Amino acid sequence: MPRCKAVIARITRLISPVFTQLLTSPRTRAARRWVAERRRRLRSEPHRIQYFHQVDDPYSQLAAQVLSALVLRYDVELVPHLVGPPSDAAAPERARLEVFARRDAADVAPGYRLEFPPDAKAPDAAQVARAQAALASVLASPAFATAAARVGFALWAADGSALEALARELGSVDAPAVAAQVAAGNRLRTKLGHYLGAMFHYGGEWYWGVDRLEHLERRLQSLGALRPGQSAESIAPRPIVRPRAIAASGTRLALEFYPSLRSPYTWIVMERVYELARRHPVELVLRPVLPMVMRGLPVPRTKQLYIALDTKREAEVAGVPFGRVCDPVGRPVERAFSLYPWARERGRAAELLLSFARASFAEGLDTGSDAGLRFVVERAGLSWDEALEHVDTEHWRAELEENRLALFALGLWGVPSFCLRDAAGVALYSTWGQDRLWRVEQEIQQRLAR
Fold first, then answer.
1. pLDDT tens by residue, 3-38
2. How far is CA 383 from CA 163, 175, 239, 332, in A?
3. pLDDT (tens digit per residue) in 60-72
4. Helical H runs in 239-325?
5. Do 232 and 221 meet the contact criterion of CB atoms below 8 Å apart?
6. pLDDT at 249 over 70
7. How far apart are CA 308 and CA 298, in angstroms?
8. Residue 246's pLDDT band (boundaries 50, 70, 90)?
9. Cβ-contact 38, 204 below 8 angstroms
């Protein structure tokens, strides 16, 4: 039986890169889009965007602020749905997620020219119900596009009087009807293949809030949905931090980078993190952690599929190869980390992680085999003969557990994550996500300029 399992695992590793390359291929995506557009035209349907709004989700509040501009700028039909929070399987660290989401929304809102209160607290359940009731009354009306943000501003400001006034203006639906609408929204979201709020669904593809709005806008523009006389500039352009000269100072900063060797998002940002550290007088400190699934946190299949497709789009924007994936979960990751302390002693730790991630997510190499791992090691500028003295040891586990605890102490748990510290080791800023690297660079520049 063990031998049979090993054979199956080997076959899976051989097939997986071909499958994921096909799944994430631009040609496959173009074909899916062609079919969706053909179906729309045959049915004489408008460009219909399904939008899933969770009233107590900070990212939904950011997304709500662009709805009016979206329907004004594009010839689209917006169909909103009220939804509840994701399941425990999709949000295994729910309490941490809720706290971080409020912090993160306030942190990035100015970069997107949006608003979110920096001191927002979790909204009261009664006020959440009141907000849902008000929005449920206009769910089938064009008024939702403007009402969602207004109701959200009152909710996140904990302004009960404003919510009552909006309920009188917009109308209100009784609790059973609201529950039925939320349940219907949840069912449709699940049927279409997602689990979060702030999600736009168009023509078979998902787009997460303002962070992925540019992808949706480019697609709509390619279909000729931009209204005459409207600007082709994105409604919420992705923030870009311009390089600037900074006078030499005595400020010393350390940038902690928390990567995982099974995270596709880690791979597509890794080289940019290294390059960011080279451009600025900061010390890059690598603090790798085990993949979530190897830490006992579930990753549902729906989530895995969305991540693969979303990573491909993000990789294309970043100019990073991605798609030929041979999942390194389990033993391949452990073998690579067994070499990590030795590679660091040789001054090649960053190169080892980068070489492994490239092999796993861009080249489809079986990093669990000796041949695959040898290729990774030698490309990182290390000796395979020396590596054999260290591979498959266990002394690295304590360090990665220490990194995990440090990550949790920052209120984070996912990867890639970042923490900027001063010379005394005090955390000055921390965040999570490859699409937050612009904030990390912005914070570095601001700290160095002070």
1. 665 555 666 677 889 999 999 999 999 999 999 999
2. 66, 67, 41, 18
3. 999 999 999 999 9
4. 264-279, 301-318
5. yes
6. no
7. 16
8. low
9. no
- Do 275 and 321 meet the contact criterion of CB atoms below 8 Å apart? no
Average pLDDT of the chain is: 95
Tokens of 40: 């729309």
**Among 159, 169, 417, which Cα is nearest to 288's?**
417
Name the residue type at position 286.
Answer: L
Q: Which residues of 66-81 are buried (b: 16+ CB within 10 A; e: fewer)?
A: bbbebbebbebebbbb
Q: How far apart are CA 263 and CA 289, in angstroms?
A: 10
Whether 233 and 213 have beta carbons less than 8 Å apart is answered as no
Closest CA to 134 of 203, 191, 87, 64: 64
Contacts 24+ apart (CB under 8 A), 238-243: 238/211, 238/214, 238/317, 238/435, 238/438, 239/108, 239/111, 239/112, 239/438, 239/439, 239/442, 240/438, 241/438, 241/441, 241/442, 241/445, 243/279
At which residue do the structure tokens 């496959």 appear? 28
> For the chain, first and last CA: distance in Å?
63
DSSP bridge pairs for 49: 78
Q: What is the pLDDT of residue 223?
A: 98
Helix axes 160-170, 125-136, angle to 10 degrees: 20
pTM above 0.90, yes or no: yes
Task: Dig out the tokens for 351 from the structure.
Answer: 């190169």
Strands (E), 316-399: none
The span from the CA of 270 to the CA of 356, in Å, is 11
Phi and psi, residue 423, nearest 5°: -65, -25
What does the alpha-carbon distance between residue 419 and residue 449 come to, in Å, rounded to a whole number? 18
Name residue 282's beta-bridge partners: 253
Strand partners, 253: 282, 422
3-state secondary structure (DSSP) of residue 76: strand
How many Å apart are CA 261 and CA 259, to the nearest integer? Answer: 7
d(CA 283, CA 217): 38
